[in-house]
Each structure stands twice: as structure tokens, then as C-alpha cells.
Automatic annotation (TrEMBL):
SUPFAM superfamilies: SET domain. It comes from the Eukaryota. This is SET domain-containing protein. Residues 27-121 form the SET domain. It comes from Lobosporangium transversale.
Length: 178
């Protein structure tokens, strides 16, 4: 049986996975498991107001860059070690994963049952596993590869971590000097 916080590529036994599940933040959110590849999601267990701190990000550990890690500086990643690993991407995110302050914050009003999503390029310079985006938002970037591959104009629509701002500045200055 999988561990609680192991993000599985493919789930074939939804009932068994749900049975083994022990929430890291009971009352705030829970994981909804779905059969198939990358179909699970983190869902709000209560309403949250825009700007509300949902939880602190705690219990992390340094780890290698991989599809389940989160970049927290120019050259380091962490494993979340909680239900937060099930935050999915959206180009119209419901939460901000603030890696500078290590907080999860409501980016908009969230109702109980809403999926919790964040904008992956807000913390990732170059994704370990780029993927096509089908979020359907009018702001959809279509291809999620990391902030490195987006214009500053696009990035400016979102909260992004300070290390991403620094890397964008370096990239843009290097392009301007050519």
C-alpha cells in the first residue's frame, strides 16, 4: 500500500489507496484519489477567503529536483511531505504556495469542495517533467515548462517566489545586453 504522501503516477486501486490515506491537515483539505494517471487532487474541506493563510508549510526536507519537489531557491528543492504534494497546477490558481514565507495562502475565495491549485512556474524555473496544460483558463499558458520559458509579462500576472524574480531579472538582463 502506498504511503500517505507519495504522489503516485497511476492509481489502480482507489479503494485501497483511500483506505491507507491519513490526512496531514484534517479539517483544512483532503486528497481525492481517482483512478488513472495524475488524476488525484487536493480539495478544500472548508471555505477560505482570499488572502487567508490556509496553513504553514512544515515538515519539508531537502530533496533532488523531481516532479514531486518544489523549488525554494535558485538551486534547491524540497519534498513537501504532506498532503500539499497533491496540489495540482492551474493557470488560474486558487492558492499561492509562498515558498519565501512557507505558507499556503488563498489566492481567491475558495468554497468547500473546490480543488486547491497553484501556478507551478511561480516556484519552478525549469520543470523536471514539462506537460501540456488543459486548465481552460483564459490565461492558460498551454505548456508548463517553468518560469524560464514564459515572458515576464505573463509571469507578472502571478505571485512568484523571490528566486524566480531573481532568475527572471538575470535572464532579461542577459537578453537586453545582446
Amino acid at each position: 500500500m502506498p504511503s500517505t504522501y507519495e504522489k503516485q503516477d497511476t492509481i489502480v486501486d482507489v479503494a485501497g489507496t483511500k483506505e491507507a490515506y491519513k490526512p496531514s491537515h484534517p479539517g483544512l483539505f483532503e486528497v481525492f484519489y481517482a483512478e488513472g494517471s495524475f488524476n488525484s487532487q487536493l480539495v478544500a474541506s472548508q471555505d477560505f477567503k482570499q488572502g487567508q493563510i490556509i496553513c504553514k508549510i512544515e515538515g519539508t526536507e531537502p530533496g533532488p529536483k523531481r516532479y514531486s519537489s518544489v523549488q525554494v531557491s535558485k538551486d534547491s528543492h524540497i519534498e513537501l511531505n504532506s498532503d500539499l504534494v497533491f496540489l495540482n497546477h492551474s493557470c488560474d490558481p486558487s492558492v499561492t504556495l509562498d515558498t519565501d514565507e512557507m505558507k499556503l495562502i488563498a489566492a481567491k475565495d475558495i468554497k468547500k469542495g473546490d480543488a486547491l491549485t497553484f501556478f507551478y512556474p511561480s516556484s519552478e524555473w525549469e520543470m523536471d517533467q514539462p506537460f501540456p496544460c488543459w486548465c481552460g483558463s483564459t490565461k492558460c499558458c498551454k505548456s508548463i515548462q517553468g518560469a524560464k520559458f514564459l515572458s515576464t509579462k505573463v509571469i507578472d500576472q502571478y505571485y512568484v517566489a523571490s528566486h524566480i524574480r531573481e532568475l527572471l531579472k538575470e535572464r532579461d538582463e542577459a537578453q537586453d545586453s545582446k
